[in-house]
Design goal:
The structure is a single chain. This protein is of the alpha+beta class. It has one domain. The protein is built from 2 helices and 9 strands, in the order αβββββαββββ. The protein has a 9-stranded antiparallel sheet, covered by helices on one side. A hairpin with a 2-residue loop joins strand 6 (108-112) and strand 7 (115-124). The protein starts with a helix and ends with a strand.
Length: 153
């Protein structure tokens, strides 16, 4: 497995699943929402719980073995400022732009109307942690914490 191939696969998988409104698969655990993307020997699974406030894990497998994973927890801070649907729409629009740049980690900002999406992170895709948030007119209304990296035996 080449690390540059892994990185490129993660970007394609992320773009094709949640951001690309990919089809949901069978729930792997009671109440979970599961999205999958495959390409040859590669498999990506995103499994999460909740909606307005949610928690989940993304994992990548190569030749049937786990090689990379990321955990995340997102939540609405001010429901009077942003709905789950608005936050989801802004996240999809922003991340699709980031993925078009061939990456999925921080140092990214996107504005649309009176919403601004910001993503910051430390590290690279092999070991990282970060935060994304959405501001409405300068007030942070939603945020998500994430961390992850390579999985090794």
């Amino acid at each position: 497995m080449q690390l540059d191939q892994l990185h490129a696969f993660i970007v394609r998988a992320k773009a094709a699943t949640y951001v690309g409104s990919g089809a949901q698969g069978a729930s792997s655990r009671p109440g979970s929402h599961d999205l999958q993307y495959t390409e040859g020997d590669w498999l990506y699974i995103d499994s999460y719980f909740g909606g307005t406030d949610f928690i989940g894990e993304e994992a990548v497998f190569f030749e049937g073995k786990p090689v990379w994973a990321m955990n995340y927890y997102g939540y609405i801070l001010h429901p009077e400022l942003i709905s789950a649907a608005e936050a989801g729409g802004m996240i999809k629009a922003s991340l699709s732009r980031m993925y078009a740049e061939g990456r999925f980690l921080g140092g990214f900002r996107h504005s649309a109307g009176n919403l601004t999406y910001i993503d910051t992170s430390e590290g690279d895709f092999s070991h990282f942690h970060g935060k994304e948030w959405i501001e409405r007119e300068g007030v942070r209304a939603y945020e998500l914490l994430y961390h992850g990296g390579l999985v090794k035996d």
